[in-house]
Each structure stands twice: as C-alpha cells, then as structure tokens.
Amino acid sequence: MNKNSNTYIFIYASLMVVIVAVVLTMANLTLKPLQQKNVKNEKMTEILSSIGIEANAENAEQLFNQYIREEIVITASGEVVGVYRDGALAEGTERAFDIDLKKELNKQIKTGDGHFPMYIADNNGERLIIIPLLGKGLWAKIWGNIALKSDLNTIYGANFGHESETPGLGAEISEPKKEGKKVFSDQYDGKQIFDAEGNFQSIICVKGGVANQSKVAPEHGVDAISGGTLTSNGVTDMINDCLVNYVEYIKKNK
Amino acid sequence: MSTVKNEREPLFSAKNIRLMTTPLNKENPITKQVLGICSALAVTVKVEPAIVMAISVMAVLAVGNLVISLLRNTIPNRIRIIVQLVVIAALVILVDQVLKAYSYDVSKQLSVFVGLIITNCIIMGRFEAFAMGNKPWPSFLDGLGNAAGYGWILIAVAVARELFGSGTIMGMTIIPEGFYGFGYVNNGLMILPPMALIVVAVIIWIQRARNKDMVEEN
C-alpha cells in the first residue's frame, strides 16, 4: 500500500488515536481511586497540621477521625445548615469536607448565599475551630487553614499551601513547621482576629515587620516575607476574605 | 551480502554501548546540543524533583524511542511529526497519572513540568534524528543514554543550587548551623532561574576545558 496515499494516512491516524485513547482511559480508570485518595489524604493532613498534628498519607484518615469531632456548614449570616458527626450527616445535606470552597466564595460574592465549611477539633480536651482558607497568590492559588481557640478569637495555629509561588520567596508561606525554627506560619500562633471592642480585624502581613510600624496592632499583624510582598498581600486578602464569612457565626456563638 | 545482514549484532556491542555513553559527555543533550534548557531551569531548585524529572524523561524517551522505531516503517512521512507528538503526549500523560497515584508529593512539585516533557526538545530531537532511522534496540539504548545525559546534568545543577541556595540536599541539612552563626547566608540568587543557566554554563566550561575537541573553531 502506498504510505503516502490519503487513505493510508487517514486510517493510520484514526487507528492511532483510538488505540491511544483506549490506553489512556484504562490507565485513568485504574489509577483514579488511588489519586482521589491522595487528594483526600492531603486535605486531611493540611487540616490536622493547623492544630499541630503531624499526619502523613498513611495515618491521615485515622488521625482525622480521631481529632475532628464535627464538621459544620454555615452561611455568611451565621446560620448552621449542615452538621456531620461520627461518620454520618446529622443535619443538612452536605458534608463540610466535600465543599468546594472556591465555588462557595464565588457564590458568596455573586448572590450572597455561599455555604462555608468549618471543622471542630478536640485536641486533648481543648475545643478548636478550624477554618479553611483559599485565595490568590502571586502566580496561582494559595490556601490554608486557621485554627481558633475556644474563645473564637485567638489563633491556635495556621498553615498555608501554594501551587506555584516563587521558591525561596513567596513559597516560604508553606515552609513546614520545624522544631527550633520559626517559620512564617508560626507567627500566627496567639494572634487575635477581633479587637477589644469586638470588631473584626483579620490578620495582616506587614511589610517591613510589625515591630517597625504603628498602623497595625501587634496582635493583628505578622511580618510579611521579604521579597515576597505580592504573595504576602495575597495571604492577607485570603485571610480577610475567608474569615469575614465566619464573623456572624462567631459573634452568635461567642 | 546476505550473510552480513543475517549476522546478529550482540546486544551490547561496542557500537551500542557507545550509543549510551556518548550522550553522557561528548554529545550531551544539554551541554553540547543545548536542548532541554527550559526544564533544566525549572526543576533544579531542589534535588528530589530533579531526580524524578530525570527518571520520567528517561521512561518517556526510552519507551518513546522504542515505539517510534518499531513503527518507523509504517509511519506516513507526511504526518510523522504528529505521530511522534501523539506518542510523546500519551507517554507523558501515563507518567503523570502514575506519579499522581503513587508519588503524589513529587507530582505536586513537578506539576506543570511533567506536562512540559511533551515540549522537551530532546525527545522530539531523538525521535526525529535517531528512532526514525534505526532499529528498536539501538533506539532504546539511545533513548536511555540521552535521558541519562540530560538527567545527570539536571541532578548536578540541582545539587549545586540546593546546596548553596537552601543549605540542604534532598531536604537534609548539609551546611552546619554553626556556619550561619559566623554570618554565612544561603544565596537567594541560587534558587532563582538565572542561576540554573550560570551553573549549566560552568559545567559546559569545565567540560570543554577538558575535551579540547569539543571546542568550536572560529
């Protein structure tokens, strides 16, 4: 057969595409459960890390079930619309863990009826509230979790993640916690999101260091990353834009 | 004539071995042919992703070379580039899926760069220059050799950049804490892309200084 005839080329190309499609679909189908489990484990690891529990892919699920007592879904006006407890839905129709935060944040901006997830953890008898965060860094999305103590004001711990911030600069926000070394996320411990009058203040990354200025009170500010100003601003905006949706709930439940 | 044709070449004949070893040094894809620079720049901040990238490229290039070589007599000349691209793309997607399933952390770090293997010029280059005109076994070896040549440069650059940029190798602290006490600081420039080019250039410089026949005459 003439290798340069149109018929040959068409048949060759079609066959090739079909074979490749079948192979790739099969690979995708067989590997999908493993991949989804990885994504889920990672989310659990990150949530746990904000309350100082170090988990890995093997024990994430077990530790998550051990420490996270309840998952709650709330609206920006402070109503509770879903509760997930002991492996089953106790109220409402959605589980907080499965909520797509990005969709809800967009919905909140457009129509104001976003549903926000929240996790209640029990760390050796201490009740902690974990709030997931999602925002924009310099290059792509950044995310994190903030854990509040039972006064719903003081931060117990925080952790951040990023997709592709500049290594060594903006990427420092996700520097893993280490014994004897103060990393970016450690600065959040003990900060307060409300001022003495009970107004929401958020936590602000201050360029040049909190100690060197007077605009932001020390309990509401952390040092921004030098060389990572745009990422730091992204973190500030993320914390503000996400936490603001929880303010009503916190005020009601204080 | 026919006897010569029927005589089988041993699997690891001197010629085949040479296919694997020349790309490590004299015909190195990065330092001699200056291909694959983009990824050499992007994934060499830390050693671990560099190693995974090297292994991934090796898998794609060796298997891809083999596939193209097996198909070489059937591929219509007019769409050969398309066929090559489909083979690369399919292999890269496979590698990506496997990494996502079995090595999730690394796959996150490599994220977009795994996809960029598709555009890695070394792979297209070897398909077009070698696999289209050679038997499967030599093509496979050529793929391994070129990927190894690419890989060792990648890892060498990554070691230099991670050591001087973050003071660690594979995440383990190498530079003793005491040094920092004396005012030693990690070089921030090392983790930025320009330093990858400078490190590659230093390697090229050393290589050419030791192999006089690599120096162009002009």
What does the model show?
The complex is a heterodimer of chains A (254) and B (218). By secondary structure, chain A is α+β, with helices and mostly antiparallel strands. Chain A has one domain. Chain A contains five helices and nine strands, in the order H-H-E-E-E-H-E-E-E-E-E-E-H-H. Chain A has helices at residues 6-49, 60-67, 101-110, 229-243, 247-253, and strands at 68-75, 80-85, 88-91, 115-123, 126-136, 141-148, 155-162, 204-206, 221-223. In chain A, the strands form two sheets. In chain A, strands 3-2-1-4-5-6-7 form a seven-stranded antiparallel β-sheet. Chain A has a two-stranded parallel sheet with strand order 8-9. Chain A is globular, with a radius of gyration of 22 Å. The mean pLDDT of chain A is 88. Chain B is an all-alpha fold. Chain B has one domain. Chain B has ten helices and two strands; from the N terminus they run ααααααααββαα. Chain B has helices spanning 2-6, 14-21, 37-42, 47-71, 80-102, 104-116, 121-129, 136-166, 177-181, 193-210, and strands spanning 168-169, 172-173. In chain B, strands 1-2 form a two-stranded antiparallel sheet. In chain B, a hairpin with a 2-residue loop joins strand 1 and strand 2 (172-173). Chain B is globular. The N and C termini of chain B lie far apart (43 Å). The A-B interface holds A 3-4, 8-9, 12-13, 16-17, 20, 23-24, 27-28, 31, 34-35, 38-39, 42, 57, 163-164, 166-169, 227 and B 45-46, 74-79, 82-83, 86, 90, 93-94, 97-98, 100-102, 104, 111-112, 165-166, 188, 191-192.
Q: What's a concise summary of this model?
A:
The complex is a heterodimer of chains A (254) and B (218). Chain A has 254 residues and is α+β, with helices and mostly antiparallel strands.
